[in-house]
Amino acid sequence: MKFTIVATVLLGLVLTPALSQFQFQDVKVNRRQYPRTITVNVGLGFQTLTVNRNALVAIIEANSAENAWTTVWNYGTGYIATKLAREGVCYVSAMDRVVMPALDSIAVLAEQTNNVKGESVLPRSIRYIVSRRHARELRTYGNDIFALCSGLPTFIAFEESQPEGGNQIFYNQDACYRLDVLNLLGIEYCRAGKV
């Protein structure tokens, strides 16, 4: 009887660290599962952020009656795309990695700015000038951008500081569409005007 008790205690002492390490690793894996989705209170509406770390993609959706849009940030391909629901159009542009929040920090930053009371001042913004050039071969921008823009008129947009061909592009300030993305970044799409 004493031998059985001693063997059981010894077996318990040997297995306890191994089992606790296994459980800790399992919890760690569960905490890091992706895609991860959070909802952020922005002004009078809500935006949903979905981060898929494995695909290197962040998708932000604003679903209000008068201002519904979806933007996909593909960190793997280096492109972003925005679909404006009311206009039925998509814009694709190169990602400015200096201005855009990093994929690993976007969820944390969005949670920090969640439920901010009062009018927030966006720390960063980007202005894109929408060209008349249609985007071709949407699959080259990534699967999520292809799914977002497929079947819609899709135009290339250039960051204001980097106009197409190095020429000055004029735009009509009244023809701009502004997105407040997660209280982190302002994105403005302006239609190019005639020179």
Provide a descriptive summary of the structure in words.
With 195 residues, the chain is α+β, with helices and mostly antiparallel strands. It has two domains: 1-33; 36-192, no CATH class. 25% of the residues lie in helices and 38% in strands. A ten-stranded mixed sheet has the order 1-2-3-4-5-6-8-7-10-9, with helices on both faces.
What is the topology?
Layout: H1 2-31, E1 36-42, E2 45-52, E3 57-62, E4 69-74, E5 79-84, E6 89-94, H2 103-113, E7 124-134, H3 143-149, E8 154-159, E9 171-181, E10 185-192
Parallel strand pairs: 6-8, 7-10
Antiparallel strand pairs: 1-2, 2-3, 3-4, 4-5, 5-6, 7-8, 9-10
Which features does this protein show?
alpha+beta, 3 helices, 38% strand, BRICHOS domain-containing protein
Can I get a quick summary?
With 195 residues, this protein is of the alpha+beta class. 25% of the residues lie in helices and 38% in strands. The chain is built from three helices and ten strands.
Rg over CA atoms, rounded to whole Å, is 23 Å
The overall pLDDT, averaged over residues, is: 76
Total domain modules: 2
**Helix fraction bin:** 10-25%
Shape: globular
Distance between the amino and carboxyl termini: 97 Å
SSE class = alpha+beta
Task: Tell me the total number of β-strands.
Answer: 10
Specify the number of helices. 3
